[in-house]
Design a protein that fits this description.
Largest sheet: 4 strands, antiparallel
Structural class: alpha+beta
Shape: elongated
Order of helices and strands: HHHEEHEEHEEH
Radius of gyration: 16 Å
Strand order of the largest sheet: 3-4-6-5
Number of strands: 6
Length: 151
């Protein structure tokens, strides 16, 4: 549950300007994660989340730029813990995940900055990765299988 919650926190701060722990708690509640302020505070510390000045002149949570490689490593771990099966059909890679973690898996794929990934779509326990063509889908599927088999 901790990994799923932390994955959701990373996803939320990537998508929204969250200024306070109260806003973080509310956003997590909307996503079905029930937590406490103390738990969120520990998660923020573990994930090395900091506040930065936003374009609107307010402060928002973000991952420090110097921690980008740490974030990639963390997302890679989240990916390995969440994804249980990988398959493809033509140019679409299908990721079967632990329930509630498909969006974290998509965030991990999006963070990989793979040039032939067109985009991702997440459900509850299934994520779709749209590739540029069928050959890229096959290759990417094999790469992802290597990641999840390295458990």
């Amino acid at each position: 549950m901790k990994t799923q919650r932390q994955s959701k926190i990373l996803e939320l701060i990537a998508q929204r300007d969250i200024e306070t722990q109260e806003q973080m708690l509310a956003a997590l509640e909307e996503s079905g994660f029930h937590s406490t302020q103390a738990t969120i505070s520990r998660d923020i510390k573990e994930l090395r989340i900091v506040k930065e000045l936003s374009d609107r002149g307010t402060y928002r949570y973000t991952v420090r730029q110097s921690d980008a490689s740490n974030l990639f490593s963390r997302l890679n771990n989240v990916f390995r813990e969440c994804v249980v099966k990988v398959d493809y059909a033509q140019n679409i890679v299908v990721l079967k995940t632990v329930p509630g973690t498909a969006s974290g898996a998509c965030l991990a794929v999006d963070s990989m900055d793979v040039p032939y990934v067109v985009g991702t779509i997440a459900g509850d326990d299934t994520a779709l990765v749209v590739m540029r063509d069928n050959e890229y889908a096959k290759e990417f599927c094999e790469e992802l299988r290597g990641i999840i088999n390295a458990r």
